[in-house]
Amino acid sequence: MSGEKKYCKECDEEIHGRRDKQFCSDYCRAIHYNNLNAEIAVFIRRINYTIRKNRSILSKLNPKGKARVHKMKLIDSGLNFDYYTNVYKTRSGKVYYFCYDQGYLELEDDYYALVVKENYVG
Ligand SMILES: [Zn+2]
Fold this sequence. Notes:
The protein is of the alpha+beta class. It has one domain (6-116). It is 35% helix and 24% strand. It is elongated, with a radius of gyration of 24 Å. The site of zinc ion has 8 residues, from loops.
């Protein structure tokens, strides 16, 4: 064998044997992927929480199913514009962002229209 030494991605022990090995042992490989899965689970939970919180904020600001609010009010309420469940583009080019059934559309002058998706089938 020639070339660089390889080290285990989990414990940094030097790896002997096949060059394409990334872990020194099955044990380290298992630990590594378990930790990775745990991190991914936390990441997913955080996003799910943020989207549910967004939905709750939008629904509180829009009790009648239609509302017009200023961007500052959305920001002050804690809406996170980075996370939503889906985007709906109309033929005229308007873009609605939805958190489940609760949606918003940017209007002019930093105002937003809040809407509720009525028939959530299909
Ligand atoms: Zn190892």
